[in-house]
Amino acid sequence: MLGIALSCWSLVVVALTMLKAFYQIGYLWKPQAHHHRGLYPIPFSQFFRSQTLFGPLFDAFGNVILFLPIGFLLALLWRGAPRLLRSVTIAGFFGSLTIEIMQYIFRLGYSDIDDLILNTAGAALGGLAATKLPKWSHTPVVWLILLACISFAILVALGPRLGDPAKVVG
């Protein structure tokens, strides 16, 4: 079940980071806005570029939360491995780095150092949670991750039928 959950959540991560140009969930984003290449190598510069704090904070928490399940599931799969948290953190880093490179190469959005930092932190926190939470809680958390995957698939299937385009601002 861990492998299935990790595979499903990995697909969610890929969909939310590299494939937003090809689908939409309601009117959360405009797919056409993701057919470009951008590079932001200065850490946390978005906080200084943005007119409000909502966008940068939403992105920051979203990036951490996106990789929490990856770290959690990897820690359970690699249970007992030496330097478990280090291994999970490194895997999160290289997974995120791969995404950022692919986004840049294939013009699938912004390649941002913040994403790399925050995704890595999310994987590390997920791994830490797996090591600190009681063992009885692991199975329910894995089921919640699978439920989140199913919920995401339903939202993608409903696509633009969610929301009212006349009420979208901007």
From TrEMBL:
Record flagged with keyword Iron-sulfur: no
Keywords carried by this UniProt record: Membrane, Transmembrane, Transmembrane helix
Domain of life of the source: Bacteria
Xref: InterPro entries: Teicoplanin_resist-assoc (IPR053150), VanZ-like (IPR006976)
Entry keyword annotation includes Transmembrane helix: yes
Pfam families: VanZ (PF04892)
Domain called VanZ-like: residue spans: 10-129
Protein name: VanZ-like domain-containing protein
Transmembrane segments: 53-77, 84-106, 141-158
